[in-house]
């Protein structure tokens, strides 16, 4: 029996401008792009970072004191997961039988998060993850994600993982996905920022990840029109910070572009992924297999959700031996990593057991 993966996956990376007036308008553009990509035979379609309703470009060129109105407007148009916007994307994925990777501003009550969603070909949401550390100006806009989102999920096109923008500069975050044997990595960047140097750095980053992980990378960046840049800032000097920085690309496990990248304008980039190239690359260098040295170097990952409230409560019945053993087992699994937390848990445990 052959161990070579003979599958071919047709991937699409979409470089697209949002509708800065209306989240529903951006959603319409997403659905139209899905129709177009599906018409070209795409089985996987990737969109830019927080495309829906739009990336908070305003926060990059204006001081925090001047961004209140735009920040509140982003709240107004942000996406609840699940909700009407995700239902529409789910229906499109199911109708076309395609896997969709979409970046959204997720609203969770009083906070916004930079979220990446992966919809399977049956329309189900296989992954919702939040950017673990927003970058620079973004920290005024979004909350932080946690390790529960550092997951690779099985989909109709294979094992898919995702990171947003400068998360790719966190080698441990990338290794967490590599260790889960991702076959296709979706990278999402805002685009239309910083200038050509951003595009150059992005290209280095995604090609390196493809080589190091031995997987395909499908990267999508956003686009702003001249009119949109003028709307965000009337200052010509500030508008220069909202140019360039686009590198929509599809890269093989050997680090090669599978199609000429898109660096300006809108478009849909299409390439066929020969999955046999994964084994071809990993035969030479498997960073999480025969090339690893776990006795020397390893990753400690806390992949538990981190809720703001944790309840430690035991009734009188739980003081019985079996219940106590179960509580001990649970707390051992949830053992915190810092000594101070260890002491707090010990105090709570002792208080719960006192009659």
From TrEMBL:
Domain CN hydrolase residue range list: 9-275
GO molecular function, one term: nitrilase activity
Pfam families: CN_hydrolase (PF00795)
Positions of region (Disordered): 314-342
InterPro entries named in the record: C-N_Hydrolase, C-N_Hydrolase_sf, Nitrilase, Nitrilase/CN_hydratase_CS, Nitrilases_CHs
Region forming the signal peptide: none
CDD domains, sorted: nitrilases_CHs
NCBIfam families reported for this sequence: nitrile_sll0784
Family under the similarity heading: Belongs to the carbon-nitrogen hydrolase superfamily. Nitrilase family.
Protein's UniProt name: Aliphatic nitrilase
Lineage, broadest ranks: Bacteria, Pseudomonadati, Pseudomonadota, Alphaproteobacteria, Hyphomicrobiales
């Amino acid at each position: 029996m052959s161990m070579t993966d003979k599958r071919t996956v047709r991937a699409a990376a979409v470089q697209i401008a949002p509708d800065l007036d209306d989240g529903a308008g951006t959603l319409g553009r997403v659905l139209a792009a899905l129709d177009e990509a599906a018409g070209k035979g795409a089985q996987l379609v990737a969109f830019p970072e927080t495309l829906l309703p739009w990336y908070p470009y305003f926060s990059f060129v204006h001081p925090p004191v001047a961004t209140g109105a735009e920040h509140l407007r982003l709240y107004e148009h942000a996406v609840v997961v699940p909700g009407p916007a995700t239902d529409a994307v789910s229906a499109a994925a199911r109708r076309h039988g395609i896997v969709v990777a979409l970046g959204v501003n997720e609203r969770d009550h009083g906070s916004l998060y930079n979220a990446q969603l992966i919809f399977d070909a049956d329309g189900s949401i296989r992954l919702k993850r939040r950017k673990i550390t927003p970058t620079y100006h973004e920290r005024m806009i979004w909350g932080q994600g946690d390790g529960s989102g550092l997951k690779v999920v099985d989909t109709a096109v294979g094992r898919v993982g995702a990171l947003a923008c400068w998360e790719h500069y966190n080698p441990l975050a990338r290794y967490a996905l590599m260790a889960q044997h991702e076959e296709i990595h979706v990278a999402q960047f805002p685009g239309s920022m910083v200038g050509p140097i951003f595009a150059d750095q992005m290209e280095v980053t995604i090609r390196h990840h493809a080589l190091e992980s031995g997987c395909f990378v499908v990267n999508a960046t956003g686009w702003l029109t001249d009119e949109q840049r003028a709307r965000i800032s009337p200052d010509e000097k500030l508008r220069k910070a909202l140019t360039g920085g686009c590198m929509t690309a599809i890269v093989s496990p050997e680090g090669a572009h599978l199609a000429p990248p898109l660096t300006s304008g809108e478009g849909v980039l299409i390439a066929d992924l020969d999955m046999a190239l994964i084994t071809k690359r990993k035969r030479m260098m498997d960073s999480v297999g025969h090339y690893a040295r776990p006795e020397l170097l390893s990753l400690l990952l806390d992949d538990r959700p981190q809720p703001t409230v944790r309840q430690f409560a035991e009734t009188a019945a739980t003081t019985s031996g079996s219940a106590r053993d179960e509580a001990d087992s649970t707390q051992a699994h949830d053992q915190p990593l810092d000594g101070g937390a260890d002491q707090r848990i010990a105090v709570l445990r002792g208080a719960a057991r006192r009659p």
